[in-house]
Design a protein that fits this description.
By secondary structure, this protein is mostly helical. The protein has two helices and two strands, in the order H-H-E-E.
């Protein structure tokens, strides 16, 4: 399985939706910004058929040398 990048997502929008490449990038950036704002507000983001994103609070780790 390969890594999903912004470029691959934008390319998929371009090929499957039919928008221009610049419009595809703009749509992707808009969606990612909305997701980031929602996560910053402490809410979770659910994308049906893909997954749920949420910010997890983790305890401190002790450093080692």
């Amino acid at each position: 399985m390969s890594t999903v990048t912004r470029a691959t997502l934008a390319e998929q929008i371009y090929t499957q939706v039919g928008l221009s490449r610049s419009e595809s990038v703009a749509v992707l950036e808009s969606v990612l910004e909305a997701m980031a704002r929602t996560l910053e507000n402490g809410e979770s983001v659910k994308i049906s058929g893909f997954g749920t994103f949420m910010v997890r609070r983790k305890g401190r780790r002790s450093g080692r040398n």
